[in-house]
Design goal:
By secondary structure, the protein is mostly helical. It contains twelve helices and four strands. Strands 1-2-3-4 form a four-stranded parallel β-sheet.
C-alpha cells in the first residue's frame, strides 16, 4: 500500500508466500515465478517441503525449486491464471536461471559459457560469478527420480506460463543476474 501511495510498483521474490496470497496483498509482479508452485501443489506434504525449502533461502537458484513444480495440479493452475490476470500480476520467470537445470539447452549453454570465459575481455567478471556460472554440483546431487521430476517441473512451468500469456497475462523480461548465470548473455537467453 505504501509503495502504491508513492506511485511505485512492487515486485516480490516470494518465499513461503503463495502467488495468490501476494496478489491478494496487492503485489504487482513476482520474480522467478515464485509462489506459483506453492499455490498449485495440492499435496500438503509436498507444499510444506517446498515452504521449508524456500525458508532456507535456497529456493530459485537450485534445481529442487524446479523439482517442486512437478507436483503442480493442472486444475489449480487453470483456476489460478484468471485470478492473476484479473489482478494484473505480472510474472518475471527468469527461466535462464530457474530452469537452467532442466532446459534441453543446458549443455549448449554450459559449453558457450566455458568458451566465453576464455575470452580475455571477460576478465572484468569477478571469479565468483565465473565460478557460479559453471557450477553443476546441485544438479549432480539429484537422484534419478528427482531428475525426472525436474523435467516434469520444467514442462509444468512452461505450460503454466504459456497458459498465463494466452489468457492475457503479462510477462516481464529478466534473468536474475545475481545468481548462477553470466550477466548479459543470460538476459538474451
Amino acid at each position: 500500500e505504501e509503495a502504491h501511495k508513492a506511485g511505485r510498483n512492487v515486485i516480490g521474490h516470494l518465499g513461503s508466500l503463495t502467488i495468490r496470497e501476494a496478489a491478494e496483498c496487492g503485489i504487482d509482479a513476482v520474480a522467478h515465478s515464485s509462489g506459483v508452485a506453492l499455490e498449485t501443489i495440492t499435496d500438503p506434504v509436498k507444499a510444506e517441503e517446498l515452504r521449508s525449502f524456500v525458508k532456507l533461502g535456497i529456493g530459485v537458484d537450485y534445481p529442487l525449486y524446479m523439482v517442486y513444480h512437478s507436483f503442480m495440479d493442472p486444475a489449480k493452475v487453470d483456476e489460478l491464471i484468471p485470478f492473476l490476470v484479473k489482478k494484473k500480476v505480472r510474472i518475471e520467470a527468469d527461466l535462464a536461471n530457474t530452469a537452467r537445470w532442466a532446459t534441453p539447452r543446458r549443455d549448449g549453454w554450459l559449453a558457450e559459457d566455458a568458451k566465453f570465459m576464455q575470452d580475455p575481455n571477460v576478465r572484468y567478471l569477478p571469479f565468483v560469478i565465473r565460478d557460479k556460472a559453471l557450477y553443476t554440483k546441485p544438479l549432480e546431487r539429484l537422484t534419478g527420480e528427482q531428475r525426472e521430476q525436474l523435467k516434469r517441473g520444467y514442462a509444468n512451468l512452461q505450460s503454466f506460463l504459456r497458459k498465463f500469456v494466452n489468457a492475457g497475462g503479462t510477462m516481464l523480461a529478466g534473468s536474475d543476474e545475481a545468481s548462477f548465470i553470466l550477466p548479459g548473455i543470460s538476459f538474451l537467453r
